[in-house]
């Protein structure tokens, strides 16, 4: 029974990803619920809505299947959840702020410019640049957003010239962002260790191995696309 909520989340997310677009083909009417008009592109936000609703369905299912245990330990569970969520938010926010400060330094512009001219293949260039910037900022999303915002025009021109679909470039960059992102100062790593009660010494070897596998997979994907046109 423990897998049922997970299955429900996956199935509900898949269904709602398509259904929401069909329910609101012309956008969501905020006036109908008494709110000021606000333009929302349902096609762009439907995936977020679908995930949120699917998680709610999964939570309700998990509570329903073991209501007595949930009810008995509700207070302790809520306290632990609030403490864990605040820890994650504060760690991630502080590391993201650290990354933003690093990105504003003059030396960072030199690093990003040098990386942007290192490799001629845009997929390799994007992967290496993103993972290095993620390591410098201590944030996967930070490294990816900085790399794409700083070199978007350069990458777009390069992939168009080589006939590479933008979706492939985005997928490679997204995968590569989790490479050096898992250095010891990363917010996600700090949160993970705090929640599990482990130290860097105890667990970082395992984290490092997983990171290496994921990063190698990026270059395997690049090779597969280059040789066979698939990714």
Automatic annotation (TrEMBL):
Q: Where are the transmembrane segments?
A: 47-65, 207-230
**Key words, A-Z:** Membrane, Transmembrane, Transmembrane helix
Q: Which InterPro entries match?
A: Glcn_transporter
Q: What is this protein called?
A: GntP family transporter
The GO terms this record gives for MF are:
gluconate transmembrane transporter activity
Signal peptide per UniProt: none
* Any one GO CC term of the record: plasma membrane
